[in-house]
Every structure is written in C-alpha cells, then in structure tokens.
Amino acid sequence: MLASTSSRRGTSGRADTAHRLQAREAQLGKVVTQRLETQLAWFRGMDPADKQWVSVVAKSGISSFITWYQDPSTPLRGVLDVFRSAPRELVRSVSLQQTLQLLRVVVEVVEERVPELAQPQAQSELKEAVLIYSREIAFAAADIYARAAEARGSWDARLEAMVIDALVRGDSVDELASRSAAFGWQSQGSVAVLIGRAPRRSAHKSISEIRRAARRWAEDVLVGVHDDRLLIVLGGADDLEAAALALSHYYGPSDVVVGPEVSTLAEAGTSAASALWALRTASAWQSTPRPVHADQLLPERAIAGDDSAVTALIEGVHAPLAAGSGSLLETVTAYLDHGGSLEATGRSLHVHPNTVRYRLKKITGLIGHDPTESRAAFVIRIALVLGRLSSVGQLSRAHKHTPGS
Q1: Domain ranges, ordered by start, for the chain
Q2: Which residue from 182, 236, 259, 353 could staple onto 219, CB 3.0 to 4.6 Å apart?
Q3: From residue 35, how far is each of 25, 31, 83 by CA, in Å?
C-alpha cells in the first residue's frame, strides 16, 4: 500500500516537474542566451547570424531535455538534429570544446533553478536527470564531431588528390583556381612544387608524416603521389632552399626537383610542368645536385623538347647578349669557340686579353652565368645555338611532349 502510494507520488511529482519545465522553457532559453553572452568570449565575437544559430542550438538543448525528462526512453535527437541542419561553416567554426561549454551553460541554468522547477521531494530526481542528460548529450555531440572529422578528412584527401592530378595534367589556371578554392588553400605567399620519385611502399601513414614535416616549413601544403612521383606543394615557405633540402629526405633515391616559384596555387601548374620536365631530363647532367632547381636544367629540358625552356634560354641569355653593347655576343661566342682561352679569343677579335676578361665579367653581370665556369659555359652555348636557330626561323617546335608522360 505504501509502495503504491509512493509510486503515485513519484509519478505525480515527475509530471508536475515536467509541467513546470514546459511552462518556463522560454524563460530558461532567454537566460541561457544571456549567460552565453556574459560567459563565453567566442560567442560574443560571432556575427549576429551565427549567434542566432548557436542560441537556437542552446534552446533546442532545453527543449530536448524537457522531452526526454517526460519520457527517458525518448532518443536525444533535438539538439543533434539542429547541429545537422546548421550551416556547415558554423559547425566547422564551433569546436567540440565550445559545444561542450555551450551544453554546460544550459545545464548550469537548469540546475540553478531546480528549486523553482521541482517540488522538494522531486528535486534530487531532477538533478540526477540533468546529470544523465548532460552526459548522454556530450557523448552524442562527441560522436557527431568525430564522424564529421572523419568525413571531412576523407573529402579533403580527395580534393588534395584532385589538385595534385590537375597540376600533373597541366590544367588551366582557371581550373586550378577552382580546385584550390574548394580545397581551402589559405596562403597568400609564393608557391613552389617539389617533385621526385616516391619512396618505396609509400602509404597513407607516410604521406601524413611528409605532410606534417612540410608544414614546419610552409603556411600551406599539398602532398600527393601521382604514378610513381611524389609531389609536395609549398605555399608561403620562408626559406625554400632549406625546406627543399630537408624534405628531399622523404623522396626515393633519385633526383628531387624544385619548380620555380609562382604567385598563387592557381599558377602552380607552371611550376609543376617545369619540375616534371626537369625530373625527366635530370639524368643527362651527370653531377645533378639534390635537390636541383628546374631552371638549373634548362639546357637539358630544351634539348628534350621543352618549349618553355627554349624560350627561357633565348630570352634570358641570347637576347640580352645580342642587344648588349660592346660586342658581348661576339666575345662570348669566340671565347667558347676557342676553348676558354683569353689569348686566343683576344687574337681572333683583335683586342687585348684584358679586354676579353672585362667583357666576360660584364656578360656575367648581364645574364647571371659566368662563361669561365664549365656548367655556365654549357648553358650559354646551348642558348646561343637556340638563339641563332630562332633568328633564322629554323627552330623546330614540332615536338610537343607532355611533361607528365
């Protein structure tokens, strides 16, 4: 008899508490919004639209609790459904920690008002229900964030692979701009592409390690394997030389090439194309440094059929010499033809060897290549050949190889 009476009182007390909760739901929601403003700095810093969404989430937490309190077997869907329907940018910008802070404010507001919401004999039950609810909703929120992170990671990996493929294919600037915007590239600094053979047995774990290592050197990073080549795209690297040297450790045992720096990721196809041509032709230079800049292999690239290398050599070497004063083109041609002999060059030009020496220094300053050094002499000789062929219209552009092939 006593047990039956106690049961009826318990049921009556719970129903009374549920009724009071429903009657004060709007008031509780208003207090929660005010508390968010005073306690959470990240909430105060939001724009009005995002604040409104967060307030809706908080109020939904109260509504969900009331529904669950009336029937504890009810799934905790309310607040979670709001998270799912919120704008993706908002869900990304509000971290799990901030979500838990939000839920804590809701719980605190309800706990503080337990004496108003429940009769004395039902207050302990309400407090216990609040604790159970807060625990369950926290676990559920953590699960949502874990699933979102997993899905976002998979999506980001697919976008990254698409950008890498676009770079290797040589897609247009507009196409790359679109893909890089979707990926979320943030760096405003210059961009360079590093290319080499992929390490053996490369796996997702090793790619993750490479990405972490690259992030120490640059503001933004893309990493991917295309066929047997590993590409690392660095955005906003403070010291590209040091970065390339450090990251070359992650490539296979062959050459590692650094593409020329470009202004944006959308233009990185140019850097990648140069680097791919250089990688294909690096074996022609017996003492290729590792890493090597793509522009250091302009002669080999030009001979192999890279039209951009042909243009770079003509415009960077032959054209300035041809336009320069003081018989610079004639002097360097004679110097190379006479095996680097100052005396023989002077005799062929009817000038003193010191005059030849003076002109060679002037040439070095003009084109950035010192004719007295063997590698630079080779670069200049190839550039002069290409320049002469171009000037008489005999430079064939029939060979159009695809750098990624």
Answers
A1: 2-151, 170-301, 305-391
A2: 236
A3: 15, 6, 20
Which CATH class, in words, describes the domain spanning 170-301? alpha beta
User: Cβ–Cβ contacts within 10 Å for residue 38, how many?
Assistant: 10
Q: How far apart are CA 192 and CA 265, in angstroms?
A: 9
- Per CATH, 170-301 and 305-391 having the same topology is answered no
Helices (H) and strands (E) in the chain, counts: 20, 5
Give the pLDDT of the chain (405 residues) as one tens digit per residue. 434 444 444 456 678 888 888 888 888 888 888 988 999 888 888 888 788 888 887 888 788 788 888 877 766 555 555 555 555 555 566 777 777 788 888 888 888 888 888 888 888 888 888 888 777 777 766 766 666 555 444 445 556 666 667 777 765 555 555 555 555 677 788 999 999 998 876 444 577 788 889 989 988 888 888 778 888 999 889 899 999 999 999 998 889 999 999 988 878 888 989 999 999 999 999 889 999 999 999 999 999 999 999 999 999 999 999 987 779 999 999 999 999 999 999 999 999 999 999 999 999 999 999 999 999 999 999 999 999 998 766 665 444 444 554
Which is nearest to 32 in space by CA: 149, 124, 127, 110? 110
Helix (H) or strand (E) holding 221: strand 220-226
Structural fold of domain 305-391: Arc Repressor Mutant, subunit A (1.10.10)
| Phi-psi group of 233: left, alpha or beta (phi > 0 → left; psi -120 to 50 → alpha; rest → beta) | beta
Termini Cα distance of the chain: 89
Q: Give the separation between CA 56 and CA 49, rounded to whole angstroms.
A: 11
Element housing 231 (H / E): strand 229-235
Q: Are 258 and 245 in contact (CB under 8 A)?
A: no
Residues in the chain: 405
Q: Using alpha carbons, select from 205, 312, 214 the residue that is nearest to residue 260.
A: 312
Q: How many CB atoms lie within 10 A of CB 75?
A: 11
- Which stretches of 114-182 are assigned E, i.e. beta strand? none
